[in-house]
Amino acid sequence: MQKAKVGVLGSGDVGRVLAGGFLSLGHEVKIGSRDPEKLKGWLAEAGHCASAGTFAEAAAFGDLLVLATLGSGAQSAIELAGKENFDGKVLIDATNPLDFSTGAPRLYVGHTDSLGEQVQRWLPNARVVKAFNTVGNAHMIQPEFPGGPPDMFLAGNDDDAKKIVAQVCQHFGWGVVDLGGIEASRHLEPMCMVWVIHGIRSGSWNHAFKLLRK
Ligand SMILES: NC(=O)c1ccc[n+]([C@@H]2O[C@H](COP(=O)([O-])OP(=O)(O)OC[C@H]3O[C@@H](n4cnc5c(N)ncnc54)[C@H](OP(=O)(O)O)[C@@H]3O)[C@@H](O)[C@H]2O)c1
Fold first, then answer.
1. Ligand 1, residues at Cβ distance < 6 Å
2. Rounded to an integer, what distance in angstroms lies between the CA atom of residue 10 and that of residue 117?
C-alpha cells in the first residue's frame, strides 16, 4: 500500500491503537475528536506524522478513513465530520453496536440489520469495510499468538476497498477472511460478543479468531 493520509474518527483505545499502526507503517495520521485537546498527551508521543483535529478535520484529511467511535455515537460523529468528506473514500468501520445500559454489554441492533449496514446507508458514497471489530485493541497490531497469525474477518460491498483493507490487515500482521457484502456485519458484530463473553468467562483477554482450513 502506498503512503496514505489516514483520518481516524475516534480518540479512544481503538482510534489510538489503529492510528499507531498506520504511523508505524509510515502513513500520516490525523485523529478526530469532539475535543481534540484530549489528544495532547498522545500527540506528544506519536511523532511528526501524527496530528489531531475535529471529526471534520480528520475526515477531510484522510484518503483512507477509520470509524472508531462508540457505536451509539457513530451517526453523530459522521454528521459532525460532514458526509461529503467521506465521498468515494474507503472507510474502515471498527465499531460495534454495544449497549452497556444493563451492565454486561449486549448488541442493540442485529439479526436483520447491523451497524455496518447503517453506516453504509448513512454514507452511501463511502466504501465501507467492516474490520477490526472482532478483537480487542491490545491485539489489533502485530498480534502474536502461538498458533500463528489470527484472521481478520471483513465485510463490504466494494471489492477494491476490501483489497485495500485486506492489505492493511496483512501489514498489521493478520490473515484475512472476506465474508462478502456489508450485510455480513450482521454476523461480525455478534462475533465481538463471542470475543467479549470468552474474555469475561476466562478472565483473560488474550484471544483472537482464526479460521482453520484444510
Ligand atoms: N475497545 C476495544 O478493544 C474494541 C475492540 C473492537 C472494536 N471496538 C469498537 O470500537 C469502537 C471504539 O471503541 P473504543 O474502546 O476505542 O472507544 P469508545 O469509548 O467506544 O469510543 C470513543 C470515541 O467515541 C466518540 N463518541 C462517543 N459518544 C459520541 C457521540 N455521542 N457522538 C460522537 N462521538 C462520540 C468519542 O468522541 P470524543 O473523542 O469526542 O470523546 C471517542 O472518539 C466502539 O464502537 C467499540 O465497540 C472496541
1. 10-15, 33-35, 68-71, 73, 76-77, 94-96, 98, 133, 136-137
2. 19
pLDDT tens digits, one per residue of 184-210: 999 999 999 999 999 999 999 999 999
Q: Name the residue of 69, 189, 197 to mutate for ligand 1: max ligand atoms within 8 A of Cβ.
A: 69
Substitution site in 11, 14, 107 for ligand 1 pocket (most atoms within 8 Å of beta carbon): 14
Q: Which amino acid is at 92?
A: I
**Full-model pTM:** 0.98
Probe target for ligand 1 pocket from 70, 72, 194, with the most ligand atoms within 8 Å of CB = 70
The 3-state secondary structure of 24-38 reads HCCCEEEEECCCHHH
Q: What's the pLDDT score for residue 146?
A: 96
The residues that bridge with 176 in the sheet, in sequence order, are: 152
What residues contact 55, with CB distance under 8 A and at least 6 apart? 9, 32, 33, 34, 77, 80, 81
CA-proximal residue: ligand 1, atom 45 (nearest): 95
Query: CA nearest 124: which of 171, 178, 182?
Result: 182
What's 120's DSSP letter?
A: H
Q: Which residues on adjacent β-strands are paired with residue 91?
A: 65, 128
Helix-strand-coil split of the chain, %, nearest 5: 40, 20, 40
CA–CA separation, 193 and 97 (whole Å): 10
Grid coordinates belonging to 15: 482510534
Cell of 100: 452497556
